[in-house]
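Worked example

This section walks through a single chain of length 61. The input is the sequence exactly as stored; nothing has been trimmed or padded.
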Amino acid sequence: MISTTTRIRIKDILSRIENNELVTLEERIFLNKLSSTSAVISEWVSIALGPEANSIDNDSL
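Given that input, the structure is written out below as tokens.
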């Protein structure tokens, strides 16, 4: 379970991603680490990035 502070930080970062605002590399690494350990956070990231990013990630060559 994540703390309220962490959840608020995640939601803030995801909101900025959805609005095409500045997100630092450190914040992206933070999201990546958390999403690799939490299915819920991984789903939040997928939703924030949108279907285009999801299809690129899952595209098989």
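What to look for: Residues 4-57 form one domain.
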